Amino acid sequence: WHDMEIHNPTARHLAHMIVREIGALSGVRSLVDMGCGVGVNVKALHAHFPNLAITGVDLSKEILDLARVHVGPSATIQYRVANIEKETLDERFDVVLCSQVLEHIQDDIQALENLAQACTRYVLLTVPAGSYNSTSALVGHHRHYSKEDLIHKVEKTGLTVCRVFSWGFPFHSFYKQILNWLPKKAQSAVGMGRYGLLQKGLAASLYALFYANSDRDGDNIILLAVNNRRG
């Protein structure tokens, strides 16, 4: 998964949009990335907001060790091991970010409750939308979301949704459809392992092409909610 996370054009574009959304918020001093993986979003956020206090959270020390290497040392970044489906952190943060994680969690309602508990101002989510297919199951997704379903689940936690939009049509959507046409063995191998020059070049080409995707339609949902009850 390591090279796929770092070079994945979808993850890189979502990081770009996350930076844009955080940049539009005022007075944000602290952020936690719940399910940070190898730190793609942490690195992008730190590059644009070097004074922002960032905490990366994931399931194991091994994952967070990879994030430390990828992001590099910084006095404003720290890491915590936690399972966001079963626990929350003692600290509270201006922004709780959770990107491409909820679909992997069986009890996403409880996870959203835990995210809300860690938040004093904003929760920013990204999740996959569109059809749930064999590729989705192979990468460990329990579900995909519609805007209506995600809004309903978020508002059950007491948060107020203030912005929601889709991204990815047509090129990302077509890319996902191509993956689903592949045999299952090929689906499970796409993107895995070490990337050579060819794989890196292909990923970079898709990343450039994905700039032409729509911010109004597609197979990813980005949602910003505000916490009016705490902090």
What does this structure look like?
- This protein has a seven-stranded mixed sheet, with helices on both faces.
- It has 231 residues and is α/β, with parallel strands linked by helices.
- It is globular and about 45 Å long.
- Helix 2 packs parallel to helix 3.
- 42% of the residues lie in helices and 21% in strands.
Name its key features:
231 residues; alpha/beta; 42% helix; 10 helices
Order of helices and strands: HHEHEHEEHEHHEHHHE
How is the quaternary structure best described?
A: single chain
**Strand runs, count:** 7
Radius of gyration: 17 Å
The major pleated sheet works out as: 7 strands, mixed
- Count of DSSP H/I helices: 10
Could you say which overall geometry the principal axes of the C-alpha atoms support? globular
- Distance between the ends: 37 Å
Which structural class is indicated by helix and strand composition? alpha/beta
User: What's the rounded overall pLDDT mean?
Assistant: 89
Instruction: List low-confidence stretches.
Output: none
Strand order of the largest sheet: 3-2-1-4-5-7-6
- Report strand %: 15-25%
- Helix content class: 40-55%
What would a concise description of this structure say?
By secondary structure, the chain is an alpha/beta fold.
Set down the secondary structure blueprint.
Elements (H helix, E strand, L loop, with lengths): L1 H6 L1 H15 L6 E5 L5 H9 L4 E6 L2 H11 L5 E5 L11 E7 L8 H10 L1 E10 L5 H5 L8 H10 L3 E8 L3 H11 L2 H6 L7 H13 L10 E7 L5
Parallel strand pairs: 1-2, 1-4, 2-3, 4-5
Antiparallel strand pairs: 5-7, 6-7
